[in-house]
Amino acid sequence: MLCHFLIGVPASGKSTFAQLLAKTGNYQIISTDTIRQQLYGDEVIQGNWLKIEDEVINQMKEAIALKQGIIYDATNAQRAWRMDLLSKIQKQIGKIDWLGWYLNLDLKIAQTWNSQRERTVPDNIIERMSDSLQQFPPHVAEGFINIVEIKQPQQCNLSFIEEKLNGLERCIINRNNRTKIENIILHRYSKLLDFDRLMHLISLLIAYPELGNLQYAYPDILEQIFGNPVTFDDSLSEISAVMAKLKGNIYADKLAIEKDLQFLINYGLIKHNITEPKYESSLTEINDNLDDIITHYASDKYTFERILNTIKTIADYPFLPNVKADFLNQLCPNEQSVKDSSKSNLSGHLTNLTYKLMKLEKCPDKHLKARRDLLRKDIQFILKPYQILPKTMRNGYFLGTGILSERELIETFRLLQTQAKNIDDPLALNLYNRFKDKMKWANFYDHYTYPVRVIANRSMIDIKSLDSKTLSNQTQRIQEIIEQGKLVTLNKFANRGSYEGEEKGAFCAWLLQIVFYNFAWYLGFEQEGGENHKLFRFERLDRLYIQKETDKTRTITEQKKALNKLTKLLSASYGLYLGNDVEQQKLFLSSDKQKAQETVELWFTEKIFGFIAEGTKRFPTQQMKMTKPPRSLSNSNSSLFSLSKSKNPQYPYRFQVTLPIWSLDEFDFIRWILGFGGEVKVHKPKKLQEKIITLSSNTIDVYQQQKIESVL
Hints:
13% strand, alpha/beta, plasmid, P-loop_NTPase
C-alpha cells in the first residue's frame, strides 16, 4: 500500500498539500497538529511526544485496518525523528511503502506565509528546522521508496502530484539500476543507520574528548547537556545517553555503539594499546543481511575508507603547510592565476589536505584536481553535516580540540612537565597530572616522556604545610578573581616575615597576575584606597589570604590597562620589588620617567668581566651599556658595548644600567653586587656605594667580633 510522508518547515504548505494528495485516492490524513488539539485542547501545546507518537501509530493502524492509505502531516525536520518513527511503524504495523514529499521552498516564502497565518510559529524555530533539513535532507535510505522534492509553490497542484505518482515506478527502477549493490563493495556501515551512528559517534568524541568519563572528569559538561546532574553505571551508558540527547534515540543502541568504538580503535581513530590493527577484518564484518539495502553516499567500501582516511589525516596532521604555487602551476598550468602568475587558483587549505592525502594514498600527482573534487564533496556531504569539521576553517583543517600534531603534543607535554614538577605550580601540576593520564591512555607516555629539559629552579615553599586559607592553596580562585576583575580584601598572616614600609593589616586590591620568581610564587596587584592607593606591588602567595571578596568589579579592559602598568614597572626593575612610593611609580610611568631613575655604574676586574659581558639580556638592552670585553665576537652589539675603559687599571671594565630609583633598595640587586666580592667596585651613585660599604662593614664586624670572642 502506498502511503505519503510529508516533510517541511512550519508554514511550508504541508497541510494544503495533504488535502491535494488526499484527492488522488482513499487516504486518511494524520496530522500531529490535529492530535495535539485532541490531546491537549490546543495544537500550539507541544505536549509529550511519546503520547503523540503512540496516537499517530494507533491512527495509522486504524487506517490500514480500513484499507485506507495514510498521509502523515508533520514537520519531520530531523533525520533522527524520521528514521525513528519509520522504524517503529515497521515494527508495530509492518512494511509500508512510504513516499516522501519534501516541501523545500525558499525559507522567506515560509516566513511570509507564516506571518499571514492565524497561528504563527516563531521565526527562530522555522530557521532551526530549516537548518536541520539542510544539514540532513530526506534520503530514500531512511526508509522511503522515493523522495519527491518540491522547490516552487506552483508545483503544489494536483496535476504535478499525479505526474509524480504516475512516474513513480519508473523512478524507483532507475534509482535501483543506479545503485545496484552488484556495482559496489558493501561493508558493515553500508546501511544509513549504521553509518549515521558511527559519524555521530566520531563527532561526539571530537566535541567531548573525555566522553565516557565526563561524569568524573567534567560533570558540569554533562549537567549542561542534560539540564541537571546525572550519573551513569559505566562509560558506555554515558556515551549512549549523550548520543540519545544530542543526536537522537535511534542512534543510542549500546551494543552497536560498543562495536563502533571497537571498530574505531581497530582503525586507529581512537588511541588504544593494540599491537596490530584489525581494521580490514572489522570493516568487512557485515552485521545483517544487506540484500534489500538502500545505499547512501558512503555505502561503497572505497568511499567509506576515503572518508575515514580523511578524518584520520586531519586528526594526525592539523593545519597542513601550503603546497607551493609554482609546483601547482607546473602540475595544472590552466589554474595559474591571471592577475599574478606566481600564484595558483588551486592554492588553499583544500589543496593542502588533498596533496597530503594523495601522498599517503600513493596517488600520482596528475590526479590532484579529481582527488580535490572528491574531497570537496566528502566535506560538503559528510564532514560538515555531521559536525566532524568546525564551521570555520580559515587557517586550515583540524578536528575539535585537536590543533596539535603528535610531535607538537609531545613537546607541549614535556614543557608542562618541566614547569609543573620543578616550580611547583599548583594549577600546572593538576593539569599535568590529567595530561599525563591522557598521554598514558593514548599510549604516548612511556615512549616520549624522557625529561630532556628541566627547570632547575624549585619552589622553597612547601604548600602542603601551609594554612588552607593561604593564597598558595587558592590559585584556582585567584585566577577566577583576576579574570572577573573583582576587588578583594587581602591580609597577611601574623607569623610571616615583613619588610620596612610594607602594608600593615588588611588592604583592598585588584589582583592582576601570578608570577614565579626565583624560588617562590608571587601575586602582583594594585592597591585600592588608603595611603597606598594605586600602588603596584608583588607579595608572596604563602604570606597572604583573602579576608573578603567585595561586590565591586571592573572591566577586563581596565584590568589589562593596570596589568600593562605593572608589566612596565616589572620589566624595568631588577626584581619584583617595586618600591613603596605611589608618586615614584606614577612618575616612572609618565613621560618624565627619567626623574624616577638612577644610573648605576660598576667597575669590574678583567677576571670577572667576561661573565658580566655574557649577560646581554640581564637588563633590557636600552637600559644598559658596558665596555667591550677582551676577545669579544665581531658581531657584538656596538650600542651595548659602547663604553670606554675606566682609568683604574685594577677595575678597567665599566658597566652601566639605568634602573628605577626603588631598585637600588632591591635585596637581589644588592646581593648580585656583593656576590662578586672584591672583583667589583661601585663607581656611582654615592648612596649605593655607602650601602655596599655599610653592609660589608657589618659583615666584617660580625666575624671580627667572633675572632675576638674566640681569643678570649
